């Protein structure tokens, strides 16, 4: 029998009989405010902040909230199965943890704690290129749990080649290539505090431990950390890349490749034509193009364009189980969870991330059931209306 994530609800109530209440809120939209109170302004600003006037981040939430579910009744939802197949992998639920860089600003155990939490709950962990823990260390704590690697496509071919090799050796199965960050956007919350983690003593260990990266430094990282940081800033991405360059990645990666940050249907078609396996419809949580289309508004167009050729995944604004349901109804195969798990990590380490995953999936399970579905397969556009307001 498939796991009933909704059981978490009664686990919480039963624990309450001995006086215990959850350490973190079960409404995940409250985590940001708590994190603001407990963590320093630099790290919180970096995680919670977004590009420009913040309008894209707000639009992401509004586009999800504007869509309303129309529940159906009497459809036998007793036995439910949330599992889905994504890129040839059987996932227990349509969820993965999004790549989030430099998690050591949230918690000393950083990516290791988040990866352990994902593994414990059976949810794929997508490790950022810009992580504060080396690929190998994350692989070590994950056993044989499902893990994907997010690539910032470096200007330095050897660094990219080296990352791909290290990720492959570490058992990372899917390559997620982020396209929407060839440059770091204008981010006023960070600029006003003159705070960028990479420049404030937080090493991106994937780079600093990488032989190809170190080969380009005149002195060892510990002797001249500033030079190492500046080399990272100068080469982590490459604004000169174009679609034909994808052939290099296809040749150097055996598993599925997913392009993250696709919003235009024509770009989704180009991804399919380039032999990619999937796309993540995402605006990077509103952190890149202020004023851009909300991710949920871009999703149906991409699904119409390539839904029969590519796995279409979604992120940017997912905060509740209902949001997961709505993303699936708009055609996504699965969603990536970003900021909420970073807040869970910041507030309570591995346990906090597990709490976030369990709350989200319990709420999603209940949303499915109460809307008349026994699993993701039957969810579709007919389940939603758009709020005219
Ligand atoms: C602090 C932070 C760091 C991030 N770092 C990366 C990264 O290294 N690579 C990447 O592809 N996306 C990165 N993202 C974007 C997330 O993968 C995801 O697209 C975004 O968080 C989704 O928006 P949401 O958090 O509002 O749901 C980062 C997001 C945040 C908040
Ligand atoms: C150098 C940028 C990497 C982190 C990132 O993707 C983000 O802050 O959104």
Automatic annotation (TrEMBL):
Name any cofactors this protein relies on: FMN
Taxonomically, the superkingdom here is Bacteria
Q: Which CDD domains match?
A: LMO_FMN
Indicate which residues the UniProt annotation says bind glyoxylate: 46, 152, 187, 260, 284, 287
Which Pfam families does the record associate with it?
A: FMN_dh
Residue limits of the FMN hydroxy acid dehydrogenase domain? 20-389
Q: Which family does it belong to?
A: Belongs to the FMN-dependent alpha-hydroxy acid dehydrogenase family.
The protein in question is named Oxidoreductase
């Amino acid at each position: 029998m498939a796991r009933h994530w909704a059981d978490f609800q009664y686990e919480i109530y039963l624990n309450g009989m001995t006086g215990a209440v959850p350490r973190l809120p079960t409404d995940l939209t409250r985590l940001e405010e708590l994190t603001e109170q407990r963590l320093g302004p630099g790290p919180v600003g970096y995680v919670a902040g977004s590009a420009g006037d913040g309008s894209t981040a707000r639009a992401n939430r509004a586009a999800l909230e504007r869509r309303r579910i129309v529940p159906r009744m009497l459809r036998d939802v007793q036995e439910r199965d949330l599992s889905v197949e994504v890129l040839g992998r059987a996932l227990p639920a349509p969820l993965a943890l999004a790549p989030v860089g430099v998690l050591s600003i949230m918690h000393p155990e950083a990516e290791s704690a988040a990866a352990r939490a994902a593994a414990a709950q059976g949810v794929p962990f997508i490790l950022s290129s810009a992580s504060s823990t080396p690929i190998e260390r994350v692989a070590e704590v994950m056993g044989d749990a499902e893990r994907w690697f997010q690539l910032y496509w470096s200007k330095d071919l050897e660094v990219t080649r080296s990352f791909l090799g290290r990720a492959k050796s570490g058992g990372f199965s899917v390559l997620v290539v982020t396209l929407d960050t060839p440059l770091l956007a204008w981010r006023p919350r960070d600029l006003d505090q003159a705070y960028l983690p990479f420049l404030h003593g937080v090493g991106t260990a994937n780079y600093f431990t990488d032989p190809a990266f170190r080969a380009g430094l005149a002195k060892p990282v510990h002797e001249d950390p500033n030079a190492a940081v500046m080399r990272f800033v100068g080469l982590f991405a490459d604004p000169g890349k174009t679609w034909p360059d994808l052939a290099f990645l296809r040749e150097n990666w055996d598993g599925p490749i997913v392009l993250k940050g696709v919003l235009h249907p024509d770009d989704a078609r180009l991804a399919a034509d380039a032999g990619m396996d999937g796309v993540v419809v995402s605006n990077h949580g509103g952190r890149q193009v202020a004023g851009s289309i909300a991710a949920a508004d871009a999703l149906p167009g991409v699904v119409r364009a390539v839904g029969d050729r590519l796995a279409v995944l979604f992120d940017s604004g997912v905060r509740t189980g209902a949001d997961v349901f709505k993303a699936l109804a708009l055609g996504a195969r699965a969603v990536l969870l970003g900021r909420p798990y970073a807040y869970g990590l910041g507030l309570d380490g591995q346990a906090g991330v597990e709490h976030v995953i369990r709350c989200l999936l319990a709420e999603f399970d209940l949303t499915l059931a109460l809307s008349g579905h026994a699993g993701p397969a039957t969810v579709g556009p007919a389940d939603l209306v758009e709020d005219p307001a």
